[in-house]
Design a protein that fits this description.
Layout (H helix, E strand, L loop, with lengths): L2 H5 L4 H4 L9 H6 L5 H7 L4 H9 L6 E4 L9 H8 L8 E4 L7 H10 L5 E3 L8 H12 L7 E3 L8 H11 L3 H8 L6 H4 L17 E2 L6 E2 L7 H7 L39 H6 L18 E2 L8 E2 H7 L4
Parallel strand pairs: 1-2, 2-3, 3-4
Antiparallel strand pairs: 5-6, 7-8
Helix pairs in contact: 6-7, 7-8, 8-9
The chain binds zinc ion (ZN) (5 copies).
The site of one zinc ion (ZN) has 7 residues, from loops.
């Protein structure tokens, strides 16, 4: 992609920002770790940062595409951005990039055989066979793939996952990482940044849910009694998010009969439900992710939820 063209993806507010003096040296170090959107924004701040982004290969070795650019990323744009790494791409993280096809992914991988982190969750345009081909290609060298996220690939079945695991397990380093695996909690999982996944000691994000037998992300439970019961073996609540409702705030499993009503329709355990403040009208809380649904007005105590607010204003 021509630089001017890639700048079209940068936010407008940054395009006009011109700083006085030269940027702090730390900014140049940070460049290599930024998601694409921030990278393009940074390059709009001043000439020296723009030169660093444009001429240096380093910022392009870890390509992370998240919201809001994910919706616009096509195979062609991906090829152009990936080519900036000159075949040395290390991280390819395409978060929920629905327009990317098997063909687009294959083309990038063909030119970048050094990719060690492949994160393609929610890329619904990819097929299980496309993902398998990619993993096979990237595992076929000494250090291979260190981190793989494929949750949300359509029609991924047990046998597909088995083939993927087969290719991954040829790598000894992977087996070591897998042993250091940390518990994966539902409320943390939602907050994960693309580039922080491996802190959780997992090579691959999905496994077979013991309850529904589907290829899904399987969560651990922080509830003390569930942890005690677990003792090495799977407990009833160690399943995917569809099989066991979990608290949005603390990740604990919630029994169906204990489900409390919330403004945002997310699940909360009774402990978290009691602690959160409630709407003055309907007495329901919001999870912290949906705090924007709480409307406060000057002179009154507490808040009312956007649903009650709209009702009282006659929008419904
Ligand atoms: Zn399940
Ligand atoms: Zn909770
Ligand atoms: Zn539990
Ligand atoms: Zn309300
Ligand atoms: Zn919520």
């Amino acid at each position: 992609m021509e630089f001017a063209e890639s700048m079209e993806l940068a936010p407008l507010s940054h395009k006009e920002t011109i700083s006085s003096g030269s940027p702090h040296e730390a900014l140049f170090i940070v460049l290599a770790y930024l998601p694409l959107f921030e990278l393009l924004s940074m390059s709009a701040v001043c000439r020296s940062l723009r030169d660093a982004v444009e001429k240096d290969v380093l910022p392009w070795l870890n390509l992370i595409v998240e919201k809001p650019l994910n919706f616009r990323l096509s195979d062609e744009i991906l090829m152009k951005i990936a080519s900036k790494a000159n075949g040395r791409l290390r991280t390819l993280a395409l978060m929920n990039c629905a327009k990317i096809t098997d063909d687009g992914l294959q083309r990038v991988i063909h030119q970048n055989s050094l990719i060690s982190k492949l994160h393609i969750p929610g890329c619904t345009g990819l097929t299980p066979d496309g993902v398998i081909t990619a993993v096979q290609k990237l595992s076929d060298r000494q250090h291979g793939l260190e981190s793989l996220r494929i949750n949300g690939t359509g029609n991924m079945k047990k046998e597909h996952l088995e083939r993927i695991r087969y290719y991954l397990q040829t790598n000894q380093k992977l087996q070591r990482i897998q042993r250091e695996r940390q518990p994966l909690l539902y409320h943390n999982y939602r907050k994960f940044q693309a580039y922080r996944w491996e802190e959780h000691g997992r090579v691959i994000d999905v496994e077979i849910c013991p309850k529904c037998n589907e290829v899904r992300v399987v969560f651990d439970c922080p509830r003390e009694e569930c942890k005690r019961k677990r003792g090495g073996s799977m407990t009833g609540c160690q399943t995917c998010m569809f099989c066991t409702p979990r608290c949005e705030e603390c990740g604990k499993c919630v029994e169906n009969e204990d489900l409390e009503e919330t403004v945002c329709a997310d699940t909360l355990c009774s402990d978290c439900w009691i602690q959160l403040s409630k709407c003055n009208f309907c007495n329901k809380p919001c999870c912290s992710r949906h705090r924007h649904m709480q409307i406060t007005s000057t002179g009154s105590v507490g808040w009312i939820c956007s649903v009650c607010h709209d009702k009282s204003n006659g929008f419904e």
